[in-house]
Design brief:
Elements (H helix, E strand, L loop, with lengths): L2 E5 L8 E3 L7 H7 L5 E6 L2 E11 L14 E2 L8 H13 L4 H8 L17 E4 L1 H5 L9 H13 L1 E3 H6 L7 H6 L3 E4 L17 H12 L5 E7 L5 H14 L3 E5 L6 H9 L6 E4 L5 H13 L4 E4 L11 E7 L16 H12 L2 E6 L4 H8 L4 E5 L10 E6 L5 E2 L2 E2 H12 L3 E5 L8 E4 L16 E3 L4 E3 L6 E3 L12 E4 L3 H12 L4 E4 L9 H7 L8 E4 L12 E6 L3 H4 L6 H13 L10 E6 L5 H25 L6 E9 L2 H12 L8 E13 L2 E10 L2 H17 L7 E6 L6
Parallel strand pairs: 9-14, 9-15, 10-12, 10-13, 11-12, 13-14, 16-28, 19-26, 19-27, 25-26, 27-28
Antiparallel strand pairs: 1-2, 1-4, 3-4, 3-5, 6-7, 6-8, 17-18, 20-24, 21-22, 22-23, 29-31, 29-32, 30-31
Bound molecules: adenosine-5'-diphosphate (ADP) and zinc ion (2 copies).
Length: 729
C-alpha cells in the first residue's frame, strides 16, 4: 500500500501523510498518482487542495490514524520535480510552511478545489513561417486563404475579432497544423512589424558576448549600467540568443504598473509567443499565461515577483531587471526575495542569470566585487543621450510655494517655455502629512496606529497611510475648538495645487496611488504625457522607475531629507537608489537633462558623494560601513515579528521562544518594540538575529520556529519569520 506525503496549506512547518483515494486497486493507484499532482484532502473539518510531494511505502503515522485523499485533481503533475525541489529549498531557506510555498507556486485558479478546465485560448498570432508564406499555396481553401491574409495584416487576433470578421475558430486548426499561426496568451494589441535591433555600443557588446558564452551553464552576472545605458537592449539581444537555442527566457520586472509597457517593448522585437504573468492580471489570464509557460509554447515569459515560481520546462536564461527593487521581496506571509530565488533556480537549471540595475543592492554588489558574480558595467548612456547634471539646492530660509522653491519654480517655467517636460518628485501622497492646531498644539493622529493622519484635501478627509482609517477633515480643532488648524509639509496633492497657481496654463499631471486607483487610469495619465508636449508630471515613486519620456529635461526632487534620515540601516542605500532612479528620468534622449535636489542638509555626506562621485563609489563606502558595523551583507540577518492585541502578550511570546537559545557568535536581540508599536490596533515587536555564518542563522531560526509552534497563542497573536529582511519592522 503506498502512502502519499502531501504539502497542504496550513501554518505548520511540516508535511502530512495520507492514503490514496479509496476504491481503486493498488495498481491503478500507483499508475495514476505522481508527485506534483494536486489532490483534494480532508484536513480537520476542512477540505483543502494539497500537492503530492513523495509516494512512499512507509509512514511513521499509525495506519488507523491515516485519512485517505478524497480525489486526485490532476491528470498530469501541475508542478514538475524541479519546481517541487525549488519550493522545498525555499521553504527551508525562508523557514516557511511548505504547504503555503507550494500553494503560492500555483496560479490562483489551481489553488481552488476544482478540476482544471481546459484553458480557453483567446488569442492567436502569425508565426515567422506564416509571415512569409504565400496564401495562394493553400490551394482552393478560400476561407483559409482569407484568414491567413488577415493574420498577415493584423499579426494577432482575438476570439472576438475573429468572430466579428465571420471566421469560425475551427478554421484555425489547419493553419496551426501547418505552423502558420499559433496560440498566444497575450491580451495585448497586435504588433505589425518587428523592429530591427540597434547596433550595440562596445560596452553593450561585451555584456552580450559574456552572457551568451555561458548559455547552457550556470553563471550569475551583475549588469551594472547607469540609467539609459541600454540595459534593456542587452536583455533583448540575450533573449534572442537564448530562444535561438530553443530554450525559454524568463524576465522578471518590478511591480510598478509597467508590465504591459515592458511587454510591448519586447513584442516589438519578437514574433515568438510570449506569456505575461503580472500581478495585476485577472485569474483567467494568469492561468493561461502559466499554462503557456508550462507547456513550453511561450518562449519568453515576462512577469513580476511570483513568476520566479512559474513552470518553465525548458529554462535557458533568467533576467532580473532593476534587481535592487523592493517589490521582489514579498512583504507578507511567505517573505521570499524573487531575485535570490532566481539565482538558485538558475543554478538548478544550469543557465545564466543576469541581475541588472543602475543602482545595485549592496548584497549583489558585494558578490560582484568578491568575484562570485561576473561584473558587467555600462558607463555610457546609449545613443546620443548624456548623463544629467545634478544640482543640490539649499532651501534653508528659501521662499517655498507649497513645497517648491522660487528658484525651482523659475527653472520649471524656463523648461516649459522651451517646449520641454518637467518631473516633480515627492514620495508622499495626499495634501499634507501633518495637521496641527496652532493654538493648542493638537495633532491629528490615527485612532488605531501610533501614526499621524495625512490630509487629503480633494476628498475632504484625514487618512492613515498605515491602516487606511479615514475620517472627515475637521474645520475646528477637536481639542480647543479654535479655527486655527494648519497643514504642515507637502504631499503630491499640495504640489499639484501649488503648481496650478503658478503655471496653471500648462497641463499638470499627478501620478500617485490616489489618482491611479481606477483601472486604466495610470495608462491614460501616462498617455497624456507621451505626446511630448510641455507639461509637469508630479508624482510619487510611481514616476521614479522605468519610464522613458524623451522630452523630460528637468527633474525636481522636492524632499530627499526624509529618505536620507530614515533610521533603518538601509535608509541611505534606499535614498541613494531612489535619487539616482528619479534623476535618471531626465535627459534620456537628444536634449541634456538637469536634476534639482531640494534639501535642508546640503552638507550631507552621502548626498554629496552621490552627486560628485556617483552611485557606485558611494555604494562602496556604504559597504565598508556595513562591514565595520557587521551589518548585512557583512553578516546575515533574520527577524521574527510578532503582533497581538496586547503589547505584553507580544513581548511575552517573543521572550518565551528565545528563552533557552544561545546562538554561537553573532547576536540575538529582543524583544524590541517596533517604533510604530501599534498598527491597525495591534501591538508589534521583533526578535532580531544577526549572525556571521548563515548556517548558524538557520540553526537558531529553526529552533525559534519549533518553539513558536509549541507556544499557545494568546490575544490573537500572530508571528512570522523574515530571512534577509529589507526592513526591520
Ligand atoms: P536602460 O534600460 O539602461 O535604462 P534602455 O535600454 O531603456 O536603457 O535604453 C535607453 C534608450 O537608448 C532607449 O530608447 C533605447 O532604445 C536606446 N538604445 C539602447 N541601446 C542603443 C544603441 N546601442 N544604440 C542606439 N540607441 C540605443
Ligand atoms: Zn486646538
Ligand atoms: Zn492607522
Amino acid at each position: 500500500m503506498p502512502f502519499l506525503e502531501l504539502a497542504i496549506p496550513s501554518p505548520l512547518r511540516r508535511c502530512f501523510d495520507y492514503l490514496p483515494p479509496k476504491g481503486e486497486t493498488e495498481a491503478e493507484q500507483q499508475a495514476n498518482i505522481q508527485p506534483g499532482m494536486r489532490v483534494l484532502v480532508p484536513f480537520g473539518r476542512q477540505t483543502l487542495v494539497g500537492v503530492v510531494l513523495v509516494i512512499k511505502t512507509e509512514t511513521s503515522v499509525p495506519t488507523n490514524k491515516l485519512r485517505a485523499v478524497k480525489s486526485v485533481l490532476d491528470t498530469e503533475p501541475s508542478l514538475s520535480p524541479e519546481l517541487l525541489k525549488l519550493c522545498q529549498w525555499a521553504a527551508n531557506y525562508y523557514h516557511h510552511p511548505i504547504g503555503d510555498v507550494i500553494s503560492q507556486a500555483l496560479p490562483p485558479r489551481l489553488r481552488q478545489a476544482k478540476p482544471p478546465r481546459d484553458p480557453v485560448v483567446e488569442y492567436w498570432q502569425i508565426t515567422e513561417a506564416g509571415t512569409t508564406f504565400d496564401p495562394t499555396e493553400l490551394g482552393r481553401a478560400k476561407k483559409q486563404i482569407s484568414l491567413l491574409t488577415l493574420f498577415q495584416r493584423e499579426q494577432k487576433l482575438s476570439r472576438d475579432q475573429l468572430k466579428a470578421d465571420g471566421f469560425s475558430t475551427n478554421l484555425l486548426k489547419p493553419l496551426i497544423e501547418k505552423g502558420l499561426i499559433c496560440e498566444t496568451s497575450s491580451p495585448l494589441p497586435p504588433v505589425r512589424h518587428t523592429q530591427t535591433p540597434p547596433q550595440l555600443n562596445d560596452e553593450q557588446q561585451v555584456a552580450v558576448d559574456a552572457v551568451s558564452e555561458k548559455l547552457g551553464q550556470f553563471a550569475p552576472f551583475l549588469l551594472e549600467g547607469i540609467t539609459g545605458s541600454g540595459k534593456t537592449e542587452v536583455y533583448l539581444q540575450l533573449i534572442a540568443a537564448c530562444i535561438a537555442q530553443g530554450r525559454q527566457a524568463l524576465v522578471l520586472i518590478p511591480e510598478i504598473g509597467l508590465g504591459p509597457q515592458t511587454f510591448s517593448r519586447f513584442e516589438q522585437r519578437f514574433l515568438e509567443p510570449m506569456a505575461l504573468l503580472h500581478s495585476a492580471m485577472n485569474d483567467g489570464d494568469r492561468l493561461r499565461g502559466w499554462q503557456a509557460a508550462k507547456s513550453g509554447s511561450a518562449q519568453i515569459v515576462i512577469g513580476t515577483r511570483s513568476a520566479i515560481l512559474a513552470a518553465l520546462p525548458n529554462l535557458g536564461l533568467i533576467i532580473v531587471d532593476e534587481e535592487h527593487d523592493l517589490s521582489y521581496k514579498q512583504q507578507d506571509s511567505f517573505r521570499y526575495n524573487a531575485r535570490d530565488i532566481a539565482v538558485k533556480r538558475a543554478a538548478d537549471a544550469s543557465c545564466p542569470v543576469l541581475l541588472g540595475s543602475a543602482t545595485p543592492s549592496l548584497e549583489t554588489l558585494r558578490h560582484a566585487i568578491d568575484g562570485k558574480y561576473h561584473h558587467l558595467q555600462l558607463w555610457q548612456r546609449a545613443g546620443n543621450a548624456t548623463e544629467p547634471e545634478v544640482e543640490v539646492q539649499d532651501i534653508r530660509d528659501a521662499e517655498l510655494h507649497e513645497g517648491i522653491s522660487s528658484l525651482s519654480l523659475a527653472r520649471i517655467q524656463d523648461r516649459l517655455k522651451a517646449g520641454e517636460q518637467v518631473m516633480v518628485f515627492l514620495n508622499r501622497r495626499g495634501y499634507a502629512p501633518v495637521m496641527q492646531c496652532h493654538s493648542c498644539g493638537w495633532v491629528a493622529e490615527c485612532a488605531h496606529c501610533d501614526a499621524r493622519m495625512t490630509v487629503h484635501f480633494g476628498k475632504r478627509s484625514l487618512r492613515c497611510h498605515h491602516c487606511d482609517f479615514s475620517q472627515r477633515l475637521p474645520s475646528y480643532c477637536p481639542d480647543c475648538g479654535k479655527d486655527e488648524l494648519e497643514h504642515k509639509g507637502p504631499g503630491t496633492e499640495r504640489l499639484e495645487m501649488g503648481l496650478k497657481q503658478h503655471i496653471g496654463h500648462y497641463p499638470i499631471v499627478r501620478i500617485d496611488r490616489d489618482t491611479t486607483a481606477n483601472k486604466g487610469a495610470l495608462q491614460s495619465l501616462l498617455a497624456s504625457v507621451q505626446d511630448n508636449k510641455p507639461c509637469v508630471l508630479v508624482g510619487t515613486q510611481m514616476i521614479a522607475k522605468g519610464h522613458h519620456f524623451p522630452n523630460v529635461t528637468l527633474v525636481v526632487i522636492v524632499d530627499i531629507d526624509t529618505a536620507l534620515f530614515n533610521p533603518d540601516f538601509r535608509g541611505v542605500e534606499r535614498a541613494s537608489q531612489l535619487l539616482v532612479q528619479v534623476a535618471g528620468r531626465s535627459g534620456r534622449a537628444e536634449k541634456p537633462g538637469t536634476v534639482i535636489v531640494q534639501t535642508h542638509s546640503p552638507d550631507h555626506v552621502e548626498l554629496n558623494s552621490l552627486v560628485q562621485r556617483g552611485y557606485h563609489a558611494t555604494a562602496i563606502d556604504l559597504l565598508n560601513e556595513r562591514h565595520s558595523l557587521m551589518l548585512p551583507p557583512a553578516s546575515f540577518m533574520a527577524v521574527v515579528r510578532a503582533e497581538s492585541s496586547l503589547l505584553a502578550s507580544t513581548e511575552e511570546f517573543l521572550r518565551d521562544i528565545r528563552k533557552d537559545l544561545h546562538p554561537q557568535g553573532g547576536r540575538l536581540l529582543g524583544p524590541i518594540a517596533a517604533p510604530m508599536t501599534r498598527k491597525a490596533g495591534r501591538y508589534r515587536a521583533i526578535l532580531l538575529l544577526l549572525m556571521p555564518e548563515r548556517r548558524e542563522l538557520h540553526r537558531v531560526l529553526g529552533l525559534l520556529c519549533e518553539q513558536a509552534e509549541k507556544v499557545k497563542a494568546k490575544n490573537s497573536l500572530r508571528w512570522t519569520v523574515d530571512v534577509d529582511p529589507v526592513d526591520l519592522y
